[in-house]
Amino acid sequence: MFRYLHFIGKDVEPDTGRFIDKLSPATGQKIGEVAVGSAADVDRAVRHAWAAFPAWREQHPMARGRILMAIATKLREHAAKLAEMERVETGKPAWQNPHEIEGSAKYFEFYAGLVSINHGEIIDLGPNYHSYTTREPFGVVGVITPWNAPLQQAARAIAPALAVGNVVVVKPSEETPGTSAFLAQIAVEECGLPPGVLNVVQGNGVETGASLVSHPLVRKVAFTGSLRAGREIGKIAAERVIPLTLELGGKSPNIVFETADLDAAVAGSVRAFTLNAGQICVAGTRLLVQQSIYDDFVSRLVAAVKAVTVGPQDDAFVGAITTCAQFEKVKAYFEIGVAEGATIAAGGEALSPEESNGGWYIRPTVFTNVKQDMRIANEEIFGPVLVVIPFSDEAEAIKIANDTDYGLGAGIWTKDLACAHRVAAKLEAGQVFVNEYQAGGIETPMGGYKQSGYGREKGVESLHHYSQLKCTTIRL
């Protein structure tokens, strides 16, 4: 039985303290135990980070960059092991994990190349003054990650934070604890990262996560997860008056106009809500289809959804729901949707025990006859569940798309680029994807409007959110 432990300073912490069970999404059986970090464990990790901060901050940016590049290289060398760890912990299909490990390596590679660009500017106040700005690291950054893409989410925050000279303490989800700790171990033992610069404390959100956000030496926090948890973290951060990056939920609209390439739109719309079993914050789970093509498009969509493979087989496209609680939540929405008057056109059930081997698998589900005021059209389900809503014209599409508390992403399918630009300009979302849902990559900034959060991850923009601005003005 494997035990998931803390990594603090330069060591894997010994088997002490309390543990919680880790269950396999693929079988529902216990596969390990996860340490529950106490306030004392968090304090030890933060103080190790704080002690390492002065020397790391003073490192030449290129020296930091070489270490980040070494981490990228080592992640690729250990890719098979990391992919297997995530497959076991998350229940993802075999094809998916290698792509996510490669994406994690790319974050370190990308920010390794940007270590020298986080500079300020000269401000012209006339000949009697010299005024300039500088960007400086915060110090200890707390990073709290979710279970849907554990290593990628960790790398997305750690790499830019380290690039600008911060030190980091990570609290991964207790559901997917392994790869973040292994990353820290690789970085210190094989890549030359000074001990204390990157630490990992295992545990739950209520105790371990709250202790991290509350610690007086933590100067900045980045959180990705649910709206409920984000609100709780926001309260603590507000009391302490520290900056916070929040990437929370989504109920993203995916708009198909009659001018779309319908074959591409069908395939893209299916992938938009089934990838990672729908466990993606920016998943396109509200499909808005123009009335003139509605019947034909939905017919083709439903046929494509029914052809999607799901289960424990290595070649399945859709894997397990990662947690038992989430599995039960997704199933509950089938009854909610039917009770509200919607129609299940595909899916609407979990795999049988015989098909699933006891794991938590949901068939991709499509609801039609959906009205915008239904719960299934407004609440984030976080599973492979799609609601389809018709619209008449651009104005109505925009109105329906923006009629949500969330604003993380949106999709547009059309060959009319003037329409694409008009609609994109009016959508209340941090990312808009045209003719390819989730187009972009590590270079493109990501973040939300409204209750989807604030701050930005990814791209050059992320560096500004992991540094603070100082202005110095001298009278000559």
Automatic annotation (TrEMBL):
The active site is at E247. GO terms for molecular function: oxidoreductase activity, acting on the aldehyde or oxo group of donors, NAD or NADP as acceptor. The keyword Protease does not apply. InterPro entries: Ald_DH/histidinol_DH, Ald_DH_C, Ald_DH_CS_GLU, Ald_DH_N, Aldehyde_DH_dom. It comes from Novosphingobium colocasiae. This is Aldehyde dehydrogenase. PROSITE patterns: ALDEHYDE_DEHYDR_GLU. Keywords: Oxidoreductase. Belongs to the aldehyde dehydrogenase family. The keyword Oxidoreductase applies. Residues 14-470 form the Aldehyde dehydrogenase domain.
